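Justification of resources, computational component.

The compute hours requested in this renewal are based largely on the per-chain cost of generating structure records like the one below. Each record pairs the submitted sequence with a full structure-token output. That output is archived, and it is also reused by downstream analysis tasks.
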Amino acid sequence: MQTIKTDIRRVQAMCGQIESQMNNLYDQMSQLMTMFQKQNGQNLPSNMENNPQRVGKKHLKVTML
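The structure output for this chain reads:
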């Protein structure tokens, strides 16, 4: 039982680290978008295109610049 509790604590710690990394990535992407807007005087394009689907892979979308 103690092993399960230890494993749960490790997973929770890892989730906290991942959340922090995702927040940092979000901040960096926001900074890049702001820099792009200031340099080019325009917003990023928002035309979405579907990525080709591969068997067993999740469906994603991509924005073309």
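Residues 2-63 form one domain. The mean pLDDT is 79.
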